[in-house]
Design brief:
The chain is mostly helical. It has one domain. The chain is built from 16 helices and 2 strands. Helix 14 runs antiparallel to helix 15. The N and C termini lie far apart (57 Å).
């Protein structure tokens, strides 16, 4: 634990927390967190309410809902409000806004520890961390109250458990894995897959047993984590007066028009290309959900009539096609360079490629209306693959320059995106003429 509390890890945590929290507060200032589907179809208002109050996010996909956070938050705000430090509900919201920035800080800290254990130099490590922190997905959907940044943090935690066990030679208790798995699966059910992948590879790296026994052990540990997750989730649901039947998969429906799958799959390609550097421009369009149930009319909060999206027509431009090809080549080159290193690097490359394939296949069938919303589920895998670029040219400056080039592009594209959003909010873009009229662009 001593590695966590040294000056550099603490500084990395604080910088990551500060960047994410600042951007989140910018979004909040322009009321982008007060309703549905404003930023890439994210249910921000629902998640913020769930994180702070424990309401509205129950289901098979998110077994714990927001109760993992709302329970301690409600206990703290109850005390703070009684001693006169603020109004209970407002305090809950402010504390709920801290969850994603804290998760990003922890994720960056874990990445630092991972790459230092993998014997990257400090400069190389900071270059890779910059790719993660400045990624377009981090500065957009990774800086709003959503479950995706939390899943990204837990995937990084699984990688850290694997690397720590292999690099230090110390045996990691299965109960450490199980507790981590319970928390991650409770956030999003699909986290069972990266949990199982990293656990399996951790045992393979240590040579604990033959592959048959490792597979059986992985199945047992994964099943136990899953069973405990839903047992705890059921108890939590009843504590909040919610029926445990809400946790059954039969009522869960993934959105998506079966007659328009091509459009969603093209959207997935754009999402992959924009995960790190948002080269393919995003668009501001009318928001059909501006009168959704989370909109608080009469509360003094402005209503936002626009939303951000990735129009698939953008994929037809030469720039987009060229970038997809270049970025894909960088991922493949990084994977090859990483795989050539020590076995632990090989395991990281294999797990990353495997998780990219899993996410690509998963979202061929289960998806919402914005594929970019899921980018943080595969972002960590891309960061691990791109880290292999530091080995180019016998670890000369070329690989670091490539990474810093991605960082510069990411910062530029994210700044442009945030500027677009602020401009649209200030100009009241797509404000309707009347409550009954459809949204029309503001002059």
């Amino acid at each position: 634990m001593g590695s966590f509390f040294k000056p550099i890890p603490i500084l990395i945590f604080l910088i990551s927390f500060g960047v994410t929290y600042t951007i989140e507060k910018v979004y909040d200032r322009y009321h982008l967190l007060d309703q549905y589907n404003t930023i890439f179809d994210a249910d921000v208002a629902l998640n913020l309410d769930s994180f702070g109050n424990g309401w509205g996010l129950d289901g098979f996909r998110h077994p714990f809902g927001g109760r993992l956070f709302s329970t301690p938050i409600r206990a703290v705000t109850k005390v703070l409000s009684k001693v006169g430090l603020g109004e209970d509900l407002k305090l809950r919201r402010e504390l709920a806004l801290l969850i994603v920035p804290i998760a990003e800080g922890i994720k960056s800290l874990l990445l630092y520890l991972i790459f230092r254990m993998l014997r990257l130099t400090l400069v190389e490590t900071l270059a890779v961390l910059s790719v993660n922190l400045c990624a377009f997905s981090t500065l957009t959907i990774g800086s709003i109250p959503e479950t995706y940044p939390l899943s990204s943090m837990f995937i990084t935690l699984f990688a850290w458990l694997m690397v720590r066990g292999a690099a230090s030679g110390q045996r990691t208790s299965d109960w450490h894995w199980i507790v981590s798995g319970i928390l991650a699966i409770g956030i999003t059910i699909t986290n069972l897959v990266p949990f199982s992948v990293f656990y399996l590879l951790s045992k393979k790296l240590r040579g604990d047993a033959g592959i048959g026994k490792i597979l059986v052990r992985t199945a047992v540990v994964g099943s136990l984590s899953l069973i405990i997750t839903f047992s705890v989730a059921s108890a939590g649901a009843m504590a909040y007066s919610v029926s445990p039947t809400r946790l059954l998969p039969i009522s869960e429906a993934f959105q998506g028009n079966s007659t328009d799958k091509t459009q969603y799959r093209l959207g997935l390609i754009i999402a992959v290309g924009n995960t790190i550097s948002g080269i393919i421009p995003s668009d501001i369009v009318p928001n059909e959900d501006y009168v959704g149930p989370v909109t608080k009319r009469g509360s003094g909060k402005a209503t936002v009539y626009f939303r951000t999206t990735n129009l698939v027509s953008r994929l037809k431009t030469p720039l987009a096609l060229a970038w997809i090809a270049i970025f894909g080549a960088l991922l493949l080159l990084g994977a090859y360079q990483a795989y050539r290193q020590a076995p632990i690097w090989g395991a990281l490359a294999i797990s990353s490629v495997g998780l990219l394939i899993f996410n690509f296949l998963l979202h061929q069938f289960f998806y919402g209306t914005e594929m970019f919303l899921y980018a943080l589920h595969w972002q960590v895998s891309m960061v691990f693959l791109l880290a292999g670029l530091v080995f180019l040219g016998n670890r000369k400056i070329f690989g670091i320059c490539l990474l810093m080039g991605l960082v510069i592009i990411s910062i530029f594209s994210a700044s442009h995106f945030i500027g677009q959003v602020i401009s649209a909010a200030e100009s009241k873009a797509f404000t309707p003429v009347s409550n009954s009229a459809p949204p029309t662009p503001a002059r």
